[in-house]
Amino acid sequence: MPTIVIADDYPVVMAASAAYRRLTETTPVTHFDTLPGTEDGLIERIRDFEIVVNIRSSTKFTATVFDACPRLKLLSLWGTGTDNVDLAAAARHGLTVTNTPGVAAVAIAEHALMLTLAVARRVVTLHNSVVAGEWPRGQAVQLQGKTLGVIGLGAIGRQFARLAQGIGMRVIAWTMHPDPALNFELVDLDTLLRTSDIISVHLRLSNDTLGFLARPQFEMMKPGVILVNTARGPIVEQPALLEALSTGRIAGAGLDVFDVEPLPAGHPLAKAPNVVLTPHCAGITPEVLEAGLALAIANIGSFLSGNPRNVVQPSAIP
Questions:
Q1: Fewest beta carbons within 10 Å, which of 77, 212, 264, 314?
Q2: Statement: residue 316 has pLDDT above 60
Q3: Residues acting as catalytic residues
């Protein structure tokens, strides 16, 4: 029987799921409902186990962690992001890493649409004005007929593009792996930046995408553009974003992700009048939670049966 640990289920989602209850009926699982806190704390929790289920992206699986945990064979990630895992170190240790692709695509795409509408229609500002006894009029942006530029055509980017087409927007896209079969109008990145009325980011965070949108890219953007980011905060260079917001180079931003999470009290973004902020919750719905957690557990079964699925870093040992 493999030894399994869930090291960082805080706030608790896994232990509350039906998939977890089914797993524990047949398999012993060690469960922690607090965060490890430090690298040493994580090592202490997982060093004696063969399989780790990772819940929170704030838990970092570094080369040091893998060096200290030679028994580890499988790291099953809940979610699609792998920026908290040193994949090269995992490969050196013969460790298989899996994730749960696709399960949150609909929820995140819906959230991106909500942020787009909220910024374009100035929902938060208007709500606060009405609550304060004011009755402001106008000053909203209609999306039908506007151009949406989608950066990244993975499962989420494709789903958001379809939603935007459904409300009458023209969609153009740039992606690292262009495929005409995707049936979207593909353009180069400069064209997307210069012609889009809305720009939505759907890239994974990696060395190639860190600071992907920086000051030169903001200077290319069409005046009055709205930026939406539901991917990862560091993909957009924060000082450049703040400058673009404060100078009016862009009309506003809808953000679910940030350089530092939770967003620190008094952060400049929290003071900007032309942003809508949500707490990295785009993919958190009851449906997504259950499906993603179930897939993270199913990935364990597939690995143990000798037919691993959803592998992001295959084992270096046959």
A1: 264
A2: no
A3: 232, 261, 280
User: What is the overall mean pLDDT for the chain?
Assistant: 94
In the chain, residues under CATH classification 3.40.50.720 are: 4-103+285-313, 105-277
Distance between CA atoms of residues 140 and 272, nearest Å: 18
Token output for 57:
């992206």
Q: How many CB atoms lie within 10 A of CB 229?
A: 25
Tokens encoding 244: 């673009």
The Cα 148–Cα 203 span in angstroms is 16
**Where does 4-103+285-313 sit in CATH, by number?**
3.40.50.720
Instruction: Give, rounded to a whole angstrom, the gap between the first and last alpha carbons of the chain.
Output: 21
The answer to whether residues 37 and 31 touch, using CB atoms and an 8 Å cutoff, is no
- 3-state secondary structure labels for all residues of the chain: CCCEEECCCCCCCCCCCHHHHHHHHHCCEEECCCCCCCHHHHHHHHCCCCEEEECCCCCCECHHHHHHCCCCCEEEECCCCCCCECHHHHHHCCCEEECCCCCCHHHHHHHHHHHHHHHHCCHHHHHHHHHCCCCCCCCCCCCCCCEEEEECCCHHHHHHHHHHHHCCCEEEEECCCCCHHHCCEECCHHHHHHHCCEEEECCCCCCCCCCCECHHHHHHCCCCEEEEECCCHHHECHHHHHHHHHHCCEEEEEECCCCCCCCCCCCHHHHCCCEEECCCCCCCCHHHHHHHHHHHHHHHHHHHCCCCCCEEECCCCC
Q: CATH assignment of 105-277, given 3.40.50.300, 3.20.20.80, 3.40.50.720, 1.20.1300.10?
A: 3.40.50.720
- Per-residue pLDDT reduced to its tens digit, 29-56: 999 999 999 999 999 999 999 999 999 9
d(CA 195, CA 214): 17
